[in-house]
Amino acid sequence: MAQVAETQKPEAGWIPKTKVGRMVQAGQIVSLEDIFTQGLKIKEPEIVDVLLPGLKQEVLGIGFVQKQTDAGEKSRFKAIVAVGNGTGFLGVGGAKARQVRSAIDKATLEAKLHVVPIKRGCGSWECRCGQAHSIPFRVKGKCGSVGIEIIPGPRGLGLVGGETPKTVLTLAGVKDCWTRSFGSTSTLGSMAYAVYESLRSTYGIVTPKDWVT
Ligand SMILES: [Zn+2]
Q1: Mean pLDDT for the chain overall
Q2: At 173, is the secondary structure helix, strand, or coil?
């Protein structure tokens, strides 16, 4: 019986609450590209479970948050999670809860709701292979006091940078690039959001037909 539970799909028993969710379940929307080209919003994590079956997740940080309230001291855990399918879709989310496990679970759901397409390509002048191993051009992103610049690199370079940028880039499916970070990286989640924002901006200047790589 245990095996049945393990092979059960996460979306099994899902009752969609939104129009987009119902369209996904009915098979009227069969890819995330459909959702983004039509300007629709993902409001249920199950949409991502159905449309991106190979999604991977990484816990990027766990913090402890203490807050003074009328009822006394309230302490909670904060988790930052990134999700990605390794071929151009990425999400980052954060959440707080009294238990570490539930903070991670809630952050994972948040990350799924924030999945966006990442434009990959080869913007490296040393390389010019035209394949989707890097990003098409240099991008920058910021979150709070943390900034990051991501620079296309030639094939075989690998990812040059800190642990968090490397993990997020890997989830997005970017294999070769340099990164340069600025500011204080001590705030939990800031670096992950900065990388997410910069990768997200790869779609700022292209049209939907360029999405498929
Ligand atoms: Zn290349």
Answers
A1: 89
A2: coil
CA of 23 to the centre of ligand 1 (A): 38
Pairing between β-strand 72-84 and β-strand 159-160 as defined by DSSP bridges? unpaired
Measured in Å, how far apart are the chain's first and last C-alpha atoms? 41
- Beta strand spans in the chain (E): 56-69, 72-84, 89-97, 116-117, 139-143, 146-152, 159-160, 177-182
CA distance 5 to 14: 15
Give me ligand 1 centre to Cα 156, in Å: 9
HEC per residue, 2-62: HHHHHHCCCCCCCCCCCHHHHHHHCCCCCCHHHHHHCCCCCCCHHHHHHHCCCCEEEEEEE
* pLDDT at residue 101, as a whole number: 97
How far away, in angstroms, is 154 Cα from ligand 1 center? 5
- Predicted confidence band at 49 (pLDDT cuts at 50, 70, 90)? very high
Give the length of the chain: 213
* CB hemisphere CA count around 157 (13 angstroms): 22
Query: Ligand 1 centre from 191 Cα, in Å?
Result: 26
d(C-alpha 124, C-alpha 199), whole Å: 16
The Å distance, Cα 166 to ligand 1 centre, comes to 18
133 CA to centre of ligand 1 in angstroms: 6
